[in-house]
Amino acid sequence: MLKKVFAAGMVLAGSALLAGCQSGGSGAGGTGAGAQPQGADTAVRESELRAYCPAVTVRDGTAFSTTYERGGEDDPNRVIYLSSISETTRSCNYGTGSVTVAIAGRVVPGPKGRAGNVALPLRVVMLRGDQVLFSQLYRHPVSVSDISGATQFVLTVPDVPVPGGIDRGVTLQVGFDEGNGR
User: Fold this and answer.
1) Residue 40 covered by a domain
2) Which key words tag this protein in UniProt (predicted)?
3) Cα–Cα dist 33/65, whole Å
């Protein structure tokens, strides 16, 4: 009997925890990123719920970037920073026909790590089939102050226009671009 009561209590506690996670609040008295004020102007239409918003993928081979000491390329003992992309997301605005893209990740100091600033070369690309609709390189600044652990970063690229409108042919790709900067 005690096991059944305990199990029921755990189910209720888990349900309450999950409900709290889904509430959209930030927990610090503010509103969460998804929270919107109630009202007729903020009502979500069924067409928006069913609308397509392209997922963001990380291009093969571009999820990591390594910063070496000058002259120490490919020497693991001369790594200053190792950067990685850990999460991506997007939000579509059907009224303006644009997409906001966000990239999150970490910068971890290597054996030659030091406090300072690093400019991460992050590229956002929008394609429709083989046609490039948008491609932009961002030198995202990250300030590393703690060399004993990881420093997190978030790059948000707002309102990327989608020529011809958002449809299933549109794809979004992100990644580190250590090439020539074009």
Assistant:
1) no
2) Lipoprotein, Signal
3) 29
- Could you tell me if residue 73 is inside a domain? no
Closest among 168, 172, 107 to 135, alpha carbons compared:
172
22 within domain boundaries: no
3-state secondary structure 73-119: CCCHHHEEEEEEEEEEEEEEECCCCEEEEEEEEEEEECCCCCCEEEE
Residues near 157 by Cβ (< 8 Å), separated by ≥ 6?
Answer: 100, 101, 102, 124, 136, 138
- What whole-number distance in Å separates Cα of residue 12 and Cα of residue 5? 11
The enclosing domain of 103 has a CATH number of 2.60.40
CA–CA separation, 160 vs 173, rounded Å?
A: 13
pLDDT in tens, 16-66: 433 443 333 333 333 334 444 455 566 767 666 667 899 999 999 999 999
Q: Within a domain: residue 52?
A: yes
Between CA 4 and CA 70 the distance in angstroms is: 64
What pLDDT, in 10s, does the model give residues 55-109?
999 999 999 999 999 998 999 999 999 999 999 999 999 889 999 999 999 999 9
In angstroms, rounded to a whole number, what is the distance separating the alpha carbons of residues 104 and 152? 7
How many independent structural domains does the chain possess? 1
